[in-house]
Amino acid sequence: MAIDEGGLARRLWFKFRDDSVFSLYTPFFVGLASATLHSETTFRHFISQDLHFLKAFVLAYELAEDCADDEDDKNGLRDLRKRAVGRLQMHDTFVREWGFEFPNEDISKDIATTKYTDFLLATASGKIEGERSVLDKIATPFEKTKVAAYTLAALAPCMRLYAFISTEIQGIINPDQDSTHIYKSWIENYSSQVFEEIALQNEDMLDKLSVSLTGEELEIIEKLYHQAMKLQVDFIAAQPISDQQSVVPLSRVYDFSKRHLMILCDFDLACTAFDSAAILAEIAIITAPKADMDGSDQTQLARMPSADLRSTWDVLSTQYTEQFEQCVESIVASERVEEFDYERLCSALEQLTEFERKANERVVQSGVLKGLNVEDIKRAGQSLILQDGCRSFFQKIVKNENLKTDVHVLSYCWCNDLIVSAFSSGDLNVLNVHSNELVYQESVTTGEIVKKMESPMEKLQVFNDVLIDCRSEGNKHLTVYIGGSVGDLLCLLEADIGIVVGSSSSLRRLGDHFGVSFVPLFSGLVKRQRELADQDCASNWWKPLSGVLYTVSSWAEIQAFILGSSKLVLRKISMATFWQEREREEDVI
Questions:
Q1: Is 313 exposed, middle or buried (0-12, 13-18, 19+ CB in 10 A)?
Q2: Burial of 128 per CB tally in 10 Å (0-12, 13-18, 19+)
Q3: Any idea what DSSP says for residue 312?
Q4: SUPFAM superfamilies from the entry (predicted)?
């Protein structure tokens, strides 16, 4: 999706937006969205911290106003301060509207709250990264403006985060249940146009105050923005969940003591930003002149000139795309089913088997894969750009000592070495790769392919073989399959949890035609949370739903769902116990 990044604040939000996902996928907000969050304990504690945030906001705006040099800037900051004062004065009214009252005595401040408010006020005082106040080094009033900009960098992500979260929740609430949702007022308050205007006003002010900053000062802005975002995420993750079951994160709420977590994943356009076939073709085209010049064209592995290789590949690529689309069109031309029909889907996908085999045979016959050096392939794999968050997810999965995890990559890719090399860094050599392989003669490809996986049915067979091997070792398992192409459809449906990453229109069209439901992951988790709250027993709560796949827009969502935030507090305790533990932590500090 094309994004209009706008000014500095907007660019920073999109750069660090993945952090916000870890807030959305916390037990707190999944519980709030599903209206199952305990109101008298967890939510009451959460909104009690608003007072501390609002007081810090008021003081930060005041300090920023003192640092602003331009009268328009001062007026803008003054208006933001007045808005914060107004929300502070209305806090009791809001709380009563939400159905709560707080005692007259001071409300204790959380450690996570303290970390953010201390950071904000230190920034507003010109103390950056624990150093001596930068105000002491400023020679002119104009230079003080950068402190105001720093302050807005610490404020803006807080407003945007809550506007984002509340809007996401508002978007999935069933209209029939909207009036009865226990947290309706809170959601409407933060997803309102009024709060959106506050968020935008903070971002506009940050943009304006940052116009004249140097490159070094803009780097400080970025660091402060990211730090503020992380502290807000940590605050939300630290909210205590009092004695209630949660569906997130999977690794900590599902009993994996006697069960393996099986992560199976496609490679092309699921893990990668580019299709591996095009990458291998590009290696052939780029290295062809070198092969011609060093005399290798005199061997039995003679290669086409670079220009011929490129034109041949263009023809093959265009032919594949056109015939694939024709194949999909012929499938969806049949009568659409009303309910999920797995057998008819399997039968329809059989049509792709012969198509994929013929396409691969054309590649072999063309000779475009002849003469590639294995070292060139490995270097290309090592420099391959993976989707944002993909490598990080796998690194955290394989290093998680609390999980018995097996990770398998299942791919139509022609070259196993390319995939292995792509995951060779970051201790990811433990991944099991299942794919086709190129044939080598003295480290140089012959142009032949050892064909192990060419169709959705063959990929499903590999998927089932992996599970059989796991069972033969006496292991039970929960399977998560991550994919984004038509070839993944059967594996996605066979897994306990099928997650669609990316935006393949062909996958969606075929799935829809045979009754597959594509559900945004967060929305699906909220529904699961609601169902869990209605059950008397939480054992085996994750039961696969026939014909249901979950969709995500980023790997951050997958990581947030399976692993959660590293700062997540997932303790089923009473609030009295929570406060006792918090007081002990404060004594230690």
A1: buried
A2: middle
A3: H
A4: HAD-like (SSF56784), Heme oxygenase-like (SSF48613)
**Choice among 163-177, 315-329, 514-528 with the minimum mean pLDDT:** 163-177
Chain-centroid distance of CA 405 in Å reads 20
Rounded to whole angstroms, how far apart are CA atoms 26 and 522?
Answer: 10
Q: Using alpha carbons only, how large is the chain's radius of gyration in Å? A: 28
Which token pair is 189?
């308050």
- The pLDDT assigned to 389 comes to 94
Give the CA distances from residue 339 to residues 281, 498, 512, 521, in Å, rounded to whole numbers and listed in that order: 41, 18, 10, 21
Backbone dihedral region of 389: left (phi > 0), alpha (psi from -120 to 50 degrees) or beta? Answer: left
- Burial of residue 9 (CB within 10 Å: 0-12, 13-18, 19+) is buried
Are 372 and 441 a contacting pair, CB within 8 Å? no
Q: Tally helices (H) and strands (E) across the chain.
A: 25, 10
Q: Are strands 405-410 and 432-434 parallel, antiparallel or unpaired?
A: parallel
Distance CA 456, CA 4 (A): 37
Residue 486 CA to its chain's centroid (Å)? 22
Mean pLDDT, range 532-539, rounded to an integer? 66
| Higher-pLDDT residue of 133, 350 | 350
Mean pLDDT of the 180-186 span: 89
How far apart CA 303 and CA 309 sit, in angstroms, is 9
Between 177 and 236, the more confident residue is: 236
Tokens of 253: 């709420």
Residue 41 confidence class, pLDDT cut points 50, 70, 90: confident
The residues pairing with 283 across neighbouring beta strands, listed in sequence order, are none
Question: pLDDT, tens digit, for every residue of 429-442?
Answer: 778 999 999 999 99
> What SS3 state is found at 447?
strand
Token pair of 533 as six digits: 């709250």
Residues 6+ apart with CB under 8 A from 282: none
Query: What one-character-per-residue DSSP string does 1-40 give?
Result: ------SHHHHHHHHTHHHHHHHHTSHHHHHHHTT-S-II
DSSP E strand stretches across 189-348: 259-265
Torsion of CA 224, 229, 231, 232, to 10 degrees: 140
Least confident of 396-410, 484-498, 549-563: 396-410
